[in-house]
Design a protein that fits this description.
Elements: H1 5-26, H2 33-39, H3 44-50, H4 54-79, H5 84-92, H6 95-98, H7 106-114, H8 119-144, H9 149-168, H10 172-190
Helix pairs in contact: 1-4, 4-5, 4-8, 7-8, 8-9, 9-10
């Protein structure tokens, strides 16, 4: 049975969305095409009509995951528009975010995997990271009217590191301590 162009486009979006979440949960090599396509409700044969390779899908899914992360930052700031940086810090460095393996930060979930991928995957992450830095820089500049490139890099690095460490440990008290220490350091660095 032939699939319409509209349905094919919808199927492609479904696969990218499912891959974005499953890659964050299991890593790029932690799920095969058969299982990924099954999770998207499609056959493995449909994959090759949509994507050149698994690497192509990884790049597309990485781009989608980074965009999803940016949208989550926007949602956090919309809920607390008087202190957007504080809103992002509170959302990002929370135990709830720590537990979100499939929907959480793709830098934390896939950063070490992405470092071993091809240039297209790295480019997807780089674009998302640059967008995060621009957002943080804007928030810092709005809060205290100063240049913020270095501070934005330090803040993003601290937040990613703290969330990573909090996910690595079993002890919830130690995990919370990493998040709390990072929150204090980030607020101090931002002058917030």
């Amino acid at each position: 049975m032939r699939v319409s162009r509209i349905q094919a486009a919808e199927n492609r979006e479904t696969v990218i969305n499912v891959a974005s979440r499953l890659f964050r949960e299991r890593g790029f090599d932690g799920i095969g095409l058969k299982d990924l396509m099954e999770a998207a409700g499609l056959t493995q044969g449909a994959f090759y009509k949509q994507f050149a390779s698994k690497d192509d899908l990884a790049a597309q899914a990485s781009r989608r995951a980074m965009k999803s992360a940016t949208l989550r930052w926007s949602a956090a700031t919309a809920a607390k528009s008087e202190d957007p940086l504080g809103a992002v810090i509170a959302f990002y460095l929370s135990m709830d975010h720590r537990g979100e393996k499939m929907d959480g930060c793709p830098i934390v979930a896939l950063g070490s995997d992405a470092a071993r991928q091809g240039s297209d995957v790295k480019a997807s992450f780089e674009a998302g990271i640059r967008e995060h830095l621009e957002i943080l820089g804007r928030f810092i500049a709005e809060a205290n009217g100063e240049e913020s490139d270095g501070k934005a890099m330090a803040i993003l690095s601290t937040m990613v590191g703290a969330l990573t460490l909090s996910r690595v440990v079993n002890d919830p008290d130690l995990a919370q301590a990493f998040l709390d220490a990072a929150t204090e350091q980030v607020r101090e660095a931002a002058g917030a």
